[in-house]
Backbone:
């Protein structure tokens, strides 16, 4: 991992690490094992330092966050506080009792999800794979099977672009940007994929969630967006794929946005991005049984659909 000098606030040079994720070069004082290395000039600086417990005059608040027009504060009890500013800086204050693996995962997950919003990048709550037709995104709420499907296609030899935080650049045709070279799987998902949990690292001690390194199965290059499949559990035992059109595509993509509460108001740029994705990409709703996730059968159905 490249180590580069970084000028600290106290006048000393602190060691920093160079990473690349989400289409960005990252200079970080917090080591993040498993993230792709970088040799380019940094777009984002991650610093260790003091972070306020509250922001002045926030325009949006929640249990774990406060936001102004230029900043977002994430406060995860017993882990860390993250101050994300202007789309180019994240300051992290780690609590003494913090699990450092969880601190890093929150940095590369929620904190960078907020930073991507600040940079005006349309970001979907989903996982993405690279296919011959282009990038295919599986979107939906937590627990709906996004990472499990990405893992199933990884086992079939397809490259994974993103998991959970899925950035889509829309300056020209929509392009999915590579995120992090690992999947995070709950124990039941790992079991469905036939993975031995003893060979996987836990996200944190006591949590039945595991990190699956992708190795050569990670797509390091962006891919043009082909389709977005929005996963929806149902009480039926049937599997189905229902293409949607027009305004329904706009609504579905809007609901699939990563952490939409991180926004601080209606954003015309975001609406334009959603419209561009809706115009260029196929969008379909995937109905899957609420109980008994038949991952191989669903992967077969999806593979036939996005290859058609």
Residues:
């Amino acid at each position: 991992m490249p180590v580069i000098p970084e000028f600290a606030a106290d006048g000393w040079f602190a060691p920093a690490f160079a990473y690349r994720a989400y289409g960005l070069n990252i200079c970080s004082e917090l080591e993040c094992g498993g993230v792709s290395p970088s040799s380019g000039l940094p777009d984002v600086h991650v610093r260790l330092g003091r972070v306020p417990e509250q922001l002045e005059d926030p325009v949006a608040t929640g249990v774990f966050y406060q936001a102004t027009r230029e900043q977002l504060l994430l406060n995860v009890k017993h882990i860390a506080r993250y101050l994300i500013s202007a789309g180019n800086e994240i300051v992290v204050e780690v609590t003494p009792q913090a699990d450092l693996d969880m601190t890093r995962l929150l940095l590369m997950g929620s904190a960078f999800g907020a930073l991507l919003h600040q940079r005006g990048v349309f970001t979907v709550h989903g996982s993405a794979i690279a296919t011959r037709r282009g990038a295919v995104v599986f979107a939906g709420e937590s627990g709906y099977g996004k990472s499990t499907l990405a893992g199933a296609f990884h086992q079939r030899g397809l490259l994974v672009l993103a998991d959970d935080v899925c950035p889509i650049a829309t300056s020209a045709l929509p392009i999915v940007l590579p995120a992090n070279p690992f999947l995070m799987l709950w124990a039941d998902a790992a079991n469905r994929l036939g993975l031995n949990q003893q060979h996987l690292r836990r996200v944190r001690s006591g949590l039945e969630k595991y990190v699956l390194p992708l190795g050569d199965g990670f797509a390091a290059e962006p891919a043009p967006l082909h389709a977005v499949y929005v996963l929806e559990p149902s009480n039926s035992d049937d599997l189905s794929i229902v293409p949607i059109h027009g305004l329904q595509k706009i609504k579905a993509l809007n609901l699939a946005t990563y952490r939409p509460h991180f926004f601080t108001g209606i954003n015309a740029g975001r609406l334009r991005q959603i419209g561009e994705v809706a115009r260029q990409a196929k969008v379909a709703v995937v109905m899957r049984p609420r109980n008994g996730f038949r991952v191989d059968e669903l992967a077969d159905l999806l593979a036939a659909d996005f290859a058609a």
Notes: DSSP finds six helices and 20 strands in the chain. Helices lie at 100-118, 146-155, 187-192, 247-255, 268-280, 295-307. The longest strand covers residues 223-234.
